[in-house]
Amino acid sequence: MKKKLAKKDWKKILNNYIITDCAIRESDIIYLKAENCTDDDMRQVTLIEDAGDDELGYSSIQFDEAFSSVLGASQKPVSQGLMVDSIGGFALPSGGGKTTWEPELVGGNDSALIRKVKMIDGYAWAVGLKRLVSKRYGINDWRPMVNGIHFKIDRDREDIFDYGFEDISGFSESEVYAVGGKGDIWWFDGQTWQQCGFPTNDKLKNVVCAGDGFVYVASGSAIWRGKKNTWEKIDIIELHDELNDLCWFNNMLWGIGEADFFIWDGNSIKDFFICNGEVIHPSGSMDSSNSMMLIASSSAVWTFDGDEWCNIVPDYNED
For the whole model, what pTM was predicted? Predict the structure, then answer.
């Protein structure tokens, strides 16, 4: 995706809004979550790159009140975007051949507290508190994937947030990792979850299964690398705060939060990228696919295909 959103269209859908999340559905379809700066409403914005158009097309879904939510997407069994209510665990699909879809309950028959939605082998997987893991097999067909996972709180010592999953990633559907809580990391072999040994009780926030064969995990202050029961802290950066997203793209590890951004190639690290001659130190959110890195700050959006950076949503506030 390299084309731009026109200023006239930006004025219609993003003027006076702050971008707070992003997700890739396909190489030509992405999603943004945007919250009103002065009012209580929120929008899900879809940006579409059509070969026959010079500029990005768009559509949007309006919510009268902003709510805690995360963006995700699926390619199987149908290509759709997913806005998931973090508190109740309802998924609101978009795209896929219909204008509107019925809400879906991510936790099966129960409400759930959802922290992240990720795509693994084309399917949407969600994780949340109480060590919830759920996979979307089809339209309105979310199924708990918790075989082997146990959940019990020592109420004199712990609370629910020490045992909740914050993020999930997979090399494939038969090798998946979920992290959260105090050093709480599990791996899934396609049938059963097993808890991993981890050398710290730091609260874990992010995980990515990388192309170099390792699993990378971010806590509030450090990055860890390993698999299953073997982990090492890698001193590539001292984080100022928790990351929002951790990704692997173009043979590099990427991290972004409200106070941090880094790209690590295994030898050196940098906290910027250059687009159209401008040095960018972003903060916000990001997502990646096999062909694209997507970065969204509060007022601008960029893509990177491994060779070229494109500012697909410029900060028109600066004009």
Answer: 0.95
